[in-house]
Amino acid sequence: MSSHAKLTPEASKALGLRLQALRADFGWTQAEVAGLIGLSRGHYRTLELGHRDYGDRSTSNPTIATLLELARVYRIDPKELIDLVLENSGK
To answer: What are the residue boundaries of the HTH cro/C1-type domain, all occurrences included (predicted)?
Structure first.
């Protein structure tokens, strides 16, 4: 079991919804975005869902590096994604 902090389900869901909207704005598939940021399509899919869709269905937990890559690809300030997570973390 990992000892690092995990996103709350609310933060994971909010991030996933934002990623879905951004991807739709660009007209890209999940596979296209995943390829641009160096993830498998399945891993990217968990980010959009906010959780894994198998096993224990634990929340997605992207690294800062992944958030930075997502911001680069979607041409947004990384602060937007980080603030979204913080605003929905319940802390």
So the answer is: 19-81
